[in-house]
Amino acid sequence: MSFGGYPNSPSERIEACIYWHLTAFEGRVYYAEPGPSVVADSKYLAEAYKLINFINSHVWPKNQDGADGRVYGSSYLIQPRFYITDEYDITATIVADYSLSIEIAPLELADFITAAIPELLESLAPYIFGVVVGSLRLEDAIQGIKHNVLFEEA
Question: Model's pTM, two decimal places?
């Protein structure tokens, strides 16, 4: 799947794919090319990995219905793991048992993969790619995420 309209992301697109396993599915959401090429050419990967570690330990997105809670309530139903793949994709991945995804919360998980995580990646893109290209110091990226993504007071 490819989603357009994300101006902070390198190609203004974010992509997603779903893998079907024996008892669970895996949803991956990631920046489209040229994002991976930019990461592959980076001289700042150590800082990028530190930023990804910060994101994994501090950013806890909620799934939302996009209709102000009229369809279902916002919750921390499932959380992604952020990482950089061997192909230099910056990726957010979730894994969910079929019982959760089919029987209990199919709409919530579909929205999480196709809306909530792409929106989150879009909000993180200036900080992630600022660090990756060296135009933003790690400390400034963390402060930017705290202020503009997590809405923490300075």
Answer: 0.92
Q: Nearest 10 degrees: CA dihedral of 76, 57, 97, 23?
A: 170
CA dist., res. 1 & res. 6, Å (int): 14
Identify the CA nearest to 90 among candidates 98, 81, 99.
Answer: 81
Q: For a pLDDT cut of 70, what percent of the chain falls above it?
A: 98
58: amino acid identity, one letter: H
DSSP secondary structure string, the chain? -EEE--TTSTTSEEEEEEEE-SSEEEEEEEEPTTHHHHHHT-S-HHHHHHHHHHHHHH--PPB--SSTTSSS--B-----EEEE-TT--EEEEEEEEHIIIIII-HHHHHHIIIIIHHHHHHHHHHHHHHHHHTSS-HHHHHHHHHHHTS----
Q: Which domain holds residue 122?
A: 2-148
Rounded CA Rg of the chain: 16
Mean pLDDT value of segment 122-143: 99
- Give the total number of structural domains in the chain: 1
Q: Is residue 153 part of a domain?
A: no
CA 152 to chain CA centroid, nearest Å: 19
